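User: quick one
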Amino acid sequence: MSLLEVEDLEVYYETEDGPAQAVDGVSFELEEGENLGIVGESGCGKTTLAKSIIGILPDAGYVNGGEIRFKGDDLTDMTGAQRRRLKWEEISMVAQSAMNSLDPVYTIREQIVEAIETHRPGTGRTESTEIVTEMFELVGLDPDRADDYPHQFSGGMRQRAMIAMALALEPSLILADEPTTALDVIMQDQILKRMGKIQDEVNSSMLVITHDVSVVAETCDRVLVMYAGKVAEEGPVEEIFGQPYHPYTIGLKRAFPNIRKPTQDLLSIAGYPPELVDPPTGCRFAERCPMATDRCREEEPEAHQMNGLRSYCHYAEDIDTELRPYADNPETWSQTAAARKAETGNVGGD
Amino acid sequence: MANEVLLEVENLKKHFKVNQGWIASLMQSVSGDGPDYVHAVDGVSFELRKGETLGLAGESGCGKTTTGMSLVKLHDPTAGDIVYNDKKLSEANDAEIAEFRQNAQMIFQDPFESLNPRMTVYDTVAEPLRIHDIRNETARVQRALEFAELLPAEQYFDQYPHELSGGQRQRVAIARALVLDPDFIVADEPVSMLDVSLRAGVLSLLDRMTDEFGLSVVYISHDLSLLRHMCDRLAIMYMGKIVEKGPTDQIIENPQHPYTQALINAVPVPDPDVGRERVELRGEVGDVVEIPSGCRFKSRCPDYIGDVCDQVVPPLEQKTDAGVDQDIACHLYESAEGYDPYAELASMRDGDAAATDSGDDASAPADD
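Assistant: Done. Structure below.
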């Protein structure tokens, strides 16, 4: 049994125009001690996915269908109280902006101790102080600074304090939502390294949610590429970034400059993701895809098992044999329907 | 033409007073202490050549943004000068300053905040023309928007920023910067707020801007992959000073300063097969109020070699074993210009021994 099994999950948001299908039929599994990266552009549903797992969807959001099984129990069936017990103790989250996640009027120590005592009543002061010290050392903060208030910490230190808090109860699953996006490279590098080390020690699994392909390439075992609420492609990191079988992954990978490859032309994926209130039939990426055919616009793609990964593209097999150089060429991408639309001038609308 | 200098920055400093409130100044007048200063930019010199793209890189708080803002005169320097058209800006008259402002434009990081929400795209782009009293407004606005790939331009005229996406907004900001036909542009993290798929488009637009207009551009970013992609030359900043500068490929492939090496090694690579050597830097960026003596990087430096690092400020200069054109501020390398930090260290010791009565004054050693 996997630690986390998400099956056919649908998470919708109530809007004035009807429900927006933020997560639409997503399935994946996460093994114990494994790191899974979830990548995609803004609005692809990756943060919604994390929020539905830990159970902090905003009021307008609801799980419309599917199951989230954690250690075999379906989280979507649980009551609020049952889920609260799991929070921090079993599933914790490192949110993107540590600035807003820490309470400014309590010291860092008070906040961590509160989390410990809520979940483990009867924990003595000495014991929780020990946990705080241990966690601070683990994330590379000076334990003497635990009695400081969040404003006395720099951005990087706050982010590390958040990680210390997320680890305090040794959860089996950590959801890291853009854990290093607000930081600069050196701090990012330190934090990623610490998180790797910590994981080895407590053997927890991690879901790393980010738009930064290189962060995932360095920290994760497997990757799930999301587009407009659906899975585009999923598989081991080496395969997904080495030989992807979905045009979106190919485009996304080439949209980032690589410090080791200066001469590579960047590729631009014209257009925007579709409306999620009334998503298009067929493949959701069709409008921005250089390989799209009528079949893509009409028929929703099934999973194709390719070389250890699954790709939701009708033409995954052709990418294997002949279409890869075509999809890997930036020139090609100026021929998509979305690019032509931008050329002829369709203002603002979407 | 490529080596013609457009702008020369000479020992630029920008310090900000901390504790500016009236209670603080009252306390200071009672205690007799001077105010404290944040040494945001503390003596940087470089030149910007015609048609080149120069990248300023470094961690948050290293002074790269303050340098960029000083370049377009959004800050007046505390000391040092900028030479433009053979004229020092500190000595320029009003007309010359106005001309400079026309030729120096800036693109900011956040297109959600840098555009006035109550102005239409047309007014936003036309505003600089009105300020500088330039005619032919409509045609120029249209051309700028077309260049920024907002097509057809007329359709955007009456739109407000909230009707546009992030990428479109940043294009409006670019059109606004270009409408005056400037000589150079400072772009401060121009794509960091944009979504991945939009970045490449804006970057290629910025690339075209340098190719087609022959503009010089200063890119400010902490993203070295991006700077490598965009820039001809790089300057790496640490705590208000440039620690290394030179041609981009040389700096990235053969960094010499321990800080540059650490910075480059910290950049993740979107390729799981490529391993990288990771040097972990200890600690965080130091205190820019109480500047430490000697090299500012000394407390985090993995190659610290003792007293000379501790006492003597390393000048940014040519070194014998590094490539031509690459300047490094580090005592690990032998000066190609005949400078001997150990002689300075010795003379500082002699000076200390001789002048014990004025010993306290050694707190600010040899900054200039």
